Amino acid sequence: MLMKTKKRRLEQFLFYDYTGIEAHLAKMAMKGWQIYKITPFYWEYRRIEPQKLTYTVTYFSEASDFNPYPTENQLAFHDYCEEAGWKLVTQWAQMQIFCATRENPTPIETDEALKLKAIHKSMKKNFLPSSIALLLLSLFQIYFQFHLGVRSPVDFLSNGTTLSSIVIWGILALYMLTNLTVYAVWYQRSRKAASRGETGIESGSRYRKAQIVWLLLEGIAVTGMLLSLSSQYFELMGVWLIAYTALILIVLAIRNALKRTGTSRNTNILITVISVVVLALVLTGFLTRGITRSVNAGRLGRQPAETYTITRPNGTTHTWEIYHDTLPLTVEDLQDVDYDHYSYMWTARESFLLGQYVARQSALPDGRQAPELSYTIVDVKLPALYDICLNHYLGRYDDWDADAPVEKKRYFQETNGPAWKADRVYQLHIQEETRAEYILCWGSRIVSIHFDEAPTTQQIAIAVEKLTDYEGGTR
Q: For residue 223, what is the enclosing H or E element?
C-alpha cells in the first residue's frame, strides 16, 4: 500500500499569529509532516520522518507575493539565517518560515519590539486594508437592503433570497469586525509583553475554532439563499459562482506566470489589477448577454402561456402577454362574464416571516370592456410584523399622493363591514367618496383587494369563502 506523501489542509491561523503557527508546525513535524507551501486556499505539507523540529516565523517587509524572486536584502537575510542554522521552508507574503534541526538554535530575532513593528507593518500592507474594505462593503450592502425594506417591507420580508443575503453579509461583517478587534487586542497585549521583554501573545485555539463556526454559519446562510431560489435561478447562481471562481483562478495564474517570467513587482501588480478589471467587465458582459438571451428564449424567468396581438386601424400592432395561472378568486366566480382574453397572473413569494401572494386578472385594452380583479394575500408568520404589514397597505398611496391636492388624496378608513366577517375592514376614500378597494384582516392574514365596482353582498360572501380558504403557496 502506497503511503501518502503530501497533505493539504485548511488552516485557520491568522497572518500575525506567529507563536501559534510555530507551535502547530512543530506538532505536525512530530507526526511526520513538513510545511511545504501556503496558498490562499490551503496549506500543503510533505511527508518526512517524524522528528523534533524547531520553527521560527519572521516578517520581512520587502517580501511580496508579486515579487518574481527574493530581493537582495531578502537573500542576504536568508543567508544570515542559514548560517545561524535556520533553513527557509516556505513563505506567505511577508511571512518567512524557517526550521532548525538542532536543539536550542540561536534565535533569529531577539528584539520583540522590532518584530512586532515588522508584523504591524506587514498587516497594514495585507490584512488590515482588505478586512476594512470587506467590512465597509458588508455594512453598505446591509444598509442598502434595509433601506429597500423600509420602502416596501412586505416585499422585503417575504423575499427569502434577500433575507438570506442580509444574513450572509451580516455574518461576513461580524467576521471581519471580530478579526479586526482580535488583532487590535492582540497587538496591544503584545506591545505590553514586548515592553517587558516577553514573547508575543498567541491568539489561541479558541478563536480559531470560532473562525470555523463563522465559516459554517456563512455556508448555511449561502445554502439557505440557494434553496430559496427557483430551479432556473439556482442554475443561474451556479453558473455565476463557477464563472467568478474561474476569474479568481485566472487572475492568480496570471500573477504567478508573471512572477515566473521575472516581471517586476510593480509591473506585476499593475497587470494583475488591469486583468481583474478587464476580466470582470468581460465576464459581466457575457453573463448579462447570456441571461438576456435565456430570458428571450424562454429558459429563464416567468414566461407567458401565449401572446395576443391586435392591429389598429392605423396599421400599428400591439402585443400583450397572457398568463393562465390558477387564481383562488376570479371574476368568473363573482359574476357571469363573456370575455376570451383574460390574463391570469399569480406571483408567490414566501419566507419564514411572511407569505405574499399577488393575483391579477387583467383584460387586454383591445377596445372591449371587461371587469378586472386584483388582490394581494399576506400571511404573517411572526405576529410582531403584523402592524408593519398592515400599515404598509394603509399608507400605500401616501407617497404617490404627496403632491396631490387635498381633494384628490387617497386614504383608507376603517369601516363597518359585517358581510366581510373580518376582524377589521378598511375601505379606500377620496374625500367623502368611497372606492371599491379594501384591506381585510382575517386573523394573521391581510388581504388587499381591488374591484372594478362595489361588490354585492353575494359577491362578498364568495370572496370571503375563497380568500379565507386559500392555504398559501404556489399555484
A: helix 205-227
Q: How far apart are CA 191 and CA 197, in angstroms?
A: 10
What's the pLDDT at 221? 72
- What are the phi and psi torsion angles at 7 (to 5°)? -145, 135
Confidence of residue 49 (pLDDT cuts 50, 70, 90): very high
For cell 475554532, the residue is 209
> How many Cβ atoms are within 10 Å of 330's Cβ, its own excluded?
15
Cα angle for residues 301, 303, 304 (degrees, 5° grid): 155
Per residue in 322-356, pLDDT (tens digit) is 899 999 999 999 999 988 889 999 998 888 899 99
Task: Transcribe 231-287 into DSSP letters.
Answer: HHHHHHHHHHHHHHHHHHHHHHHHHHHHHHTT--HHHHHHHHHHHHHHHHHHHHHHH
User: How far is the C-alpha of 404 from the C-alpha of 77, rounded, in Å?
Assistant: 76
- Tell whether the model's pLDDT for residue 233 goes beyond 60: no
- List the one residue out of 171, 160, 169 whose CA is nearest residue 225: 160
User: What number of other Cβ atoms are within 10 A of residue 451's Cβ?
Assistant: 20
Domain boundaries, the chain: 6-125, 325-469
Query: What pLDDT, on the 0 to 100 scale, is given for residue 474?
Result: 46
What is the rounded distance in angstroms from the CA atom of residue 242 to the CA atom of residue 237? 9
CA angle in degrees (0–180, nearest 5) for 410-415-420: 115
Decide: helix, strand or coil at residue 168. Answer: helix
Give percent of the chain above pLDDT 70: 88
Query: Bridge-partner residues for 411, per DSSP?
Result: 429
Residues 6+ apart with CB under 8 A from 256: none
Q: Tell me, what amino acid is at 121?
A: K
Mean pLDDT of the chain: 84
